[in-house]
Specification:
Blueprint: H1 2-20, H2 28-37, H3 42-48, H4 52-71, H5 74-91, H6 97-105, H7 112-121, H8 126-138, H9 146-158, H10 162-173, H11 181-190, H12 200-211, H13 215-227, H14 234-248, H15 250-261, H16 273-285, H17 292-303, H18 310-322, H19 326-338, H20 345-357, H21 361-373, H22 380-393, H23 396-408, H24 415-427, H25 431-444, H26 454-466, H27 470-482, H28 489-501, H29 505-517, H30 534-539
Helix pairs in contact: 1-4, 1-5, 5-6, 5-7, 7-8, 7-9, 8-9, 9-10, 9-11, 10-12, 11-12, 12-13, 12-14, 14-15, 14-16, 15-16, 16-17, 16-18, 18-19, 18-20, 19-20, 20-21, 20-22, 21-22, 22-23, 22-24, 23-24, 24-25, 24-26, 25-26, 26-27, 26-28, 28-29
């Protein structure tokens, strides 16, 4: 152990001797002590450490020197600690630098101000500075506050490490102490020149507030920046508008837009098509895409010279279709192609779904074929819309064909679409086909998080009971329970009717008693007395 300690300080002596030339001169007594105690060259030091005992003694005396240096205090000693730490980080190898740094810091650790100075001097090595920041916190050597957070954010912004800078600023604005973004902004402005920073760091602070869901704070920071003739980038303004729409609705998004891009706003950033798309999407989610606000947004979009893109047309088409104006949506689809915008899969799917809901399956199929001709690859949503439309129209054969084609292409439908297909097959007395689809979905989702939905099991169990295949229905119900889906009154009613059709009144009677115990008594049906005797009918 002594030999290891001596070797550690032998290696450390080379680093400290280099930094000694860059530090202010120590007091004469310290100089004399150093000159008489330790040689400056590694070779001379190693020649004196010719035995383990002597090496241990040299290491112990070296440790005393370092401890004395760190315990003196004062501005000069603070500068010495910072200089030594920077030298270790810059000159030592990656694996050994952290052990040396612990020896330099000692048991006292670092203050956040010292850490901030070290980070500032590493401003041209942002990744190393970030490793030091996290290492000092993980090693419990520094309790960081805004004195170190602000320089670290500046260094990351200078190095264009945007994601790391936003993550750091999010942590800063979310801290229990100094949580107000005003304090973070003040710290950034105070250390701006010392870090030779870039305005990007202020833009990233706004993004950090948005991602931390502190939208009011984000707007307050924007106002303070605007008072200093600094403005966030257009993408950051778009993110703020989008977040306001998502959090508080279209009205809040329009208010934020007016403040950021209004006529009396000194912001040099200009809105783009993404800005207006966010507002239109918020109106669509509220069912207001065809109201006056939407028209005002479209006029503002034209006044600003923003050319609508495919997403703009998709949102407007979706609003028309939601209002039942499918013909107007088709006209808008044609207009999109006329102005030179190629419809994407979302545009086709919007119109295909609307035609299917309107019962115009043939026109939906035609549009689906046009989609393939235009070179636009069909998505899972394309098939799901058609499967749902054919299932609702009672064409189980066409729906099953689309499902199989979808599977061959490696596309996986949503459980709701498969449930419609299974229901349509069972209604057409094709219970075996419905059971096959259910089995396929169960195999596909084995071990996954997305399991077949309850409606699939209910449809197949009802179909099996109607055909008198009670044993298969019981086995399927057991598999359903294994998936965590408990039986409900609809399933119990299907079993009751199945047993009564077979004349097994005793089993039906036991099942009914169990249903009543579990509060699963099914609702009455007008024709249930066809399958029950008079006594059993009275019990319902």
């Amino acid at each position: 152990m002594r030999l290891f300690q001596a070797n550690l300080f032998l290696r450390l002596d080379g680093v400290l001797s280099k930094t000694a030339r860059a530090r202010p001169s120590p007091p004469p007594a310290a100089v004399a002590l150093k000159a008489t105690t330790f040689p400056t060259s590694r070779g001379a030091l190693c020649s004196k450490a010719s035995s383990p005992a002597m090496a241990a003694a040299l290491g112990a005396r070296k440790f005393a020197i370092i401890s004395r240096r760190l315990s003196v205090g004062g501005a000069a000693e603070d500068e010495a600690v910072v200089a030594e730490a920077v030298a270790v980080l810059s000159e030592q190898r990656r694996r050994s630098r952290w052990g040396f740094l612990k020896a330099v810091v000692g048991g006292k650790g670092l203050t956040s101000e010292q850490a901030g100075k070290i980070i500032t001097r590493l401003k041209n090595k942002p990744r190393l500075a970030l490793r030091f920041f996290h290492w000092s916190e993980a090693s419990s050597l520094c309790l960081h506050d805004l004195s170190s957070y602000a320089p670290m954010a500046h260094v990351l912004a200078r190095g264009r490490l945007r994601r790391a800078a936003v993550s750091l600023l999010r942590a800063a604005v979310s801290r229990e102490e100094d949580a107000a973004p005003d304090s973070v902004l003040a710290a950034l402005l105070e250390s701006y020149r010392a870090c030779d920073s870039t305005p990007l760091v202020l833009d990233l602070l706004v993004r950090a507030c948005v991602q931390a869901r502190q939208l009011d704070h984000a707007m307050r920071v924007v106002r303070q920046l605007r008072a200093r003739a600094v403005s966030p980038a257009g993408a950051t303004c778009n993110e703020l508008v989008r977040a306001s729409c998502g959090a508080s609705g279209a009205a809040a998004g329009l208010a934020v837009y007016g403040e950021l891009f209004g006529g009396d706003s000194p912001m040099p950033a200009s809105p783009d098509v993404q800005t207006f798309n966010s507002l239109l999407l918020a109106l669509h989610r509220e069912g207001r895409v065809q109201e006056e606000d939407a028209d005002r947004i479209l006029r503002e979009m034209e006044r600003r010279g923003c050319r609508p893109d495919c997403f703009t047309f998709c949102v407007r088409m979706a609003g028309l279709c939601a209002g039942g104006r499918v013909a107007a949506a088709e006209a808008l689809f044609a207009e999109m192609a006329a102005v030179g915008i190629k419809p994407d899969a979302a545009a086709y799917n919007t119109l295909i779904g609307s035609l299917c809901l309107a019962g115009e399956i043939a026109r939906a199929e035609e549009l689906f074929r046009r989609m393939a001709t235009a070179g636009v690859a069909a998505t899972a949503a394309s098939y799901e819309q058609l499967i749902a439309g054919h299932s609702a129209a009672g064409d189980a054969t066409a729906a099953l064909g689309l499902y199989e084609e979808m599977s061959r292409r490696g596309l996986r439908p949503e459980p709701s679409a498969v449930a419609r297909l299974v229901g349509a097959l069972c209604e057409k007395k094709r219970v075996t086909d419905g059971l096959g689809v259910l089995r396929k979905e169960m195999e596909r989702t084995a071990g996954g998080l997305l399991l077949p939905c309850r409606e699939m099991f209910v449809s197949v169990i009802e179909g099996l009971c109607d055909e008198g295949r009670m044993q298969e229905a019981l086995e399927l119900q057991a598999e359903m329970a294994a998936q965590g889906l408990a039986p409900d009154p609809q399933i119990c009613r299907a079993f009751l009717h199945g047993y009564l059709r077979q004349g097994d009144a005793a089993t039906a009677d036991k099942l009914f008693d169990e249903m009543r115990t579990r509060s699963l008594t099914p609702p009455q049906e007008p024709d249930q007395d066809r399958w029950m005797n008079d006594t059993q009918a009275q019990r319902f």
